[in-house]
Structure formats: structure tokens, C-alpha cells
User: What shape does this take?
Amino acid sequence: MMKQSGFFDLEERLARLSGLGDQLEAFSRIVDFEAFRPDLEQALAYSDGSKGGRPPFDPVLMFRILVIQTLNNLSDERTEYLINDRLSFMRFLGLGLSDWVPDAKTVWLFRERLTQAGAIERLFERFDAILRNSRYLPMSGQILDATLVAAPKQRNTNAEKEDLREGRIPQNWQDKPAKLSHKDRHARWTLKFTKARRQDDGTMPSSDLAIPFFGYKSHISIDRKFRFIRKWKMTHAAASDGARLREGLLNKTNTASTVWADTAYRSKANEDFMEKHGFVSKVHRKKPHLKPMPRHIQKSNAGKSVIRSRVKHVFADQKSQTGLFIRTVCITRATMRIGLANIVYNMRRFLFLERLSASA
Assistant: This one.
């Protein structure tokens, strides 16, 4: 016969979860989520409730749900189910077994309101301020890079693709609002180059592989010392990496002026821009056309790569831990998704560094 569970059984199970290393509990202990409240309330602009109806869920609780969703790469429907199912999720949200849990539609509406208000940049800056107040100032220079983020592929005709590239809505979409709402007009196709694998006979192919890729591109700048994301930008997949350097991707508050980046960022315009604004370029130099790379440049690039490789760990962490992928349609929603992923990465990095400091 099954024993009826009681209050102390629940407490014992939660204590066991803590002992097993509940990451969400650590988040609650380390991150001050209340600091996000002013920005959330300003973006949401909730009514005062004088018109009646059920009051909205607490915005900080809803933001915590977006953190759970991003950490675990969950759809809205799966998020609703797992909040009801997992004690660790309920504890992180401050919900009891008898409390009402926001449904999938409520989660979608909350995220949509933040998206349309353009709140993600302010929320990112708010957490960056928390990091600075915790003595994690941008230090030792910065490293720039970009990564492709996949989005659901669109099946468009050549004529429709041409219209989209020119910034026009295809004629046969304009009178079909349902179809238009499911078409991503901002994501683009590009080629993703990857190293070819060794063949069965042991030889290497003469050229690398070029794989068609559809989606967006996440551009970031991290500080060299603590490896937090300090600046970021979202574009379609075919956008140039190098041009983003001059579009607010450099952090002027870093205690050092050095900038590391790969050859995609090497151009006269970028070098002039960095010199004008007081930055010291450590950007990789390109191989001369139809000539061997000079030995001293090879050695210089190798030294830069040791430092620059740190930014690759950020993207690897995001893609392995949070399954970076765009489920939504249009660049404003994709920006929200990437912004949340960047905030959650910084939260996880913050937790790691705090634990490291406590054990030292």
C-alpha cells in the first residue's frame, strides 16, 4: 500500500535536490532577480487593474520562467508541462503545489510584450550592471566573434527570395495574412564553411566543404579576463562579420584597449575606426593573395589565436547547454531569443566564478 505523502516528505525531497546540486536554487541564491523588476514593469506597462479581471502574473516570476525556458531549450508548451511536473522548477519560481501555473499562451504573451517593447537590451544591461557591482569589471581587453544560429527553413520561390532581399513583401503574400505571419522575412541563406574530413584511404580532400545554412548570426564581444558577454548584436546569417565592429560591438569601458578578432574583422575601415577611438588592434592578418604567409605573421597569428579561442568556448557553451536555435519568425523575436541566451550565459558564468571564488 502506497504511503500518503506529507509536508515533511516534500521538504525532504527538496533537500535531496539541493544536495544533488540544483542549479536553479544556486541561481536564486546568487542572482538578484528583483533588480529586473523596474525594467520589466516599464516594458510591460501593466494596467492598474481598475477594469477588473484576473490580475497578471508577477513579472519577475514570468522572467524566471523565461530563464528556465532558455536554460533548457523548451517550447512554451513543454515549459508549462515541466513547471507542473518538476519540484526544482516550482521552487525556483516560488510556487506551491496548489498555486496556479502560467499556461503556454501566457508565457508566449509575456515574451511577446517584452519583444515588442524592445526590452531585451535593457534587461541585458541591467544584469551587466549587476556584474560590475559584483566587481566583475570588463578587463584585459576584448574578443569579438560571430556564430550562425539556425532557424526553420523557408520554402520560397526565386521570385519571392528576390523580393525579400530587396526588402519587399512578395505580392502573393500581401493578401494572405495567415501565410505572411508564418514567413520569416529577415532570416537569410549563406554558406557555412567547414573542414573536410579525412577520406577512407587516409588522404585529405583538396578543398573544404561549403554547406548551405539558413538563419541568423549572433555577434558578441567578451572581456578577456572574466569572459562575460559585454556587447552583442543580431543580424541575418548573410551579414558581414567585420562591419559589425563599427556598429557598437566594441566596449569602451574595458580597462584595456586591446581588441582580438579573426581575419573577417581585418579591413582598413576597421583598423582606422579602432585607431580613431583609442583601441589597439590584435586582429588576425590575412594571407597575401597567391603568396605564402610570411613566417613572422604566422607566428603573430598563432599567439593571437591562443587568446582569441576563448570566445569560441562561449558559443560552444551556448549551443551545448541551451541548444541555441531560433523557433520564432522575424528578427525582433530572434533578437529576444539570442538576448535571453546571452543573459543566461552570463548568469551561468557568474555562478561559476562565484563558486570558484568561494572555494579559493
Q: What stands out?
A: The mean pLDDT is 87.
